[in-house]
Amino acid sequence: MLVLFAIVGFIALIGHIGLIASARSGLAYLHQLLPPISRPAFPRRSRKTDPHTGKQHPHSKKKPAWIKAEIIRLKAVMPQAGCCSIAILCNRRYAASHKTTIGKTYVSQILRQHHYEIDILRAGEERAGRSFEGEPF
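Structure (tokenized):
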């Protein structure tokens, strides 16, 4: 850092003497020569865990496996249903009894990750003679 101040002072002196047209252009020239000074990136926050139990914070609990299977099944049964309607349906059915709710983003992530399984389930049901076209309710 001290070297940087010495260089800036030298360029200002050269600009004062008149060797460089202006000190400002000398600083611009110096700025092109030196590598950019980067600021350290902010560290990402990790999930908060309880130091005594090692478990995650209650707001970031992992969803049960059966809810993932239910989302996949509902999308196979109702292909025209979107993430919002599937989330609302699951919350109406299971929020009170199982004390867990899901959001549209979670449904979207599950549908993106398991789109191939949804296609297989849908094709299997159509081969069995049960078509799901029409209104979901």
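The helical segments are 2-17, 23-33, 65-77, 83-98, 104-113, 115-127. The two ends are 69 Å apart (CA to CA).
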